[in-house]
Backbone:
């Protein structure tokens, strides 16, 4: 099984949008850095990710890096993303069927080159069925998220009603965002 995440989306120059990983990648790895590929077999989990780069991390935020990936992500192997084309063929050479979904980005073009006519099936067809089944802890987290969202929506609606004459949409959004962050931050600090 091969799954890649989304590339970083840039607004202009070196300013980028907040990163959101591909949902399937996030579900399988819990990891959210751009330009990352995970390869799963029956016995191994290998991840390809960006190396530590202090100069880039000043602008883009901290990267996990290769050394920490093995511990943090519980991967068996971790490689720099620039080694994908060299290592992926070795990892998949024994596979009879590869589960993979093409997303039309540069990273996926590299993966397609490595597949070299291998038999593939849609990962999403199988994975999305699995994702429908929730464990008890997932249901609890989903309920918490819904409760927080309800509370933030109610406050934003109250404030919009009060300030109906002069409240702009972006101001309502900022009320919602602030309440959401306040609640989630309080939850995090109570857990410490």
Residues:
């Amino acid at each position: 099984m091969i799954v890649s995440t989304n590339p970083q989306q840039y607004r202009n120059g070196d300013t980028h949008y907040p990163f959101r990983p591909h949902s399937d990648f996030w579900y399988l790895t819990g990891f959210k850095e751009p330009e990352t590929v995970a390869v799963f077999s029956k016995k191994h989990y290998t991840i390809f990710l960006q190396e530590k780069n202090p100069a880039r991390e000043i602008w883009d935020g901290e990267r996990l890096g290769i050394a920490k990936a093995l511990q943090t992500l519980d991967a068996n192997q971790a490689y720099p993303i620039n080694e994908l084309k060299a290592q992926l063929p070795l990892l998949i050479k024994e596979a009879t069927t590869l589960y993979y979904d093409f997303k039309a980005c540069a990273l996926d073009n590299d993966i397609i080159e490595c597949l070299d006519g291998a038999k593939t099936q849609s990962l999403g067809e199988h994975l999305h069925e699995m994702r429908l089944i929730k464990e008890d802890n997932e249901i609890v987290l989903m309920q918490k998220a819904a409760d927080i969202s309800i509370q933030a929506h109610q406050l934003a609606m109250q404030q919009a009603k009060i300030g109906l004459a002069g409240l702009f949409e972006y101001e309502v959004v900022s009320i919602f965002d602030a309440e959401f962050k306040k609640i989630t931050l309080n939850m995090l600090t109570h857990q410490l």
Summary: The chain has a mean pLDDT of 88. The two ends are 36 Å apart (CA to CA). The first helix runs from residue 23 to 29.
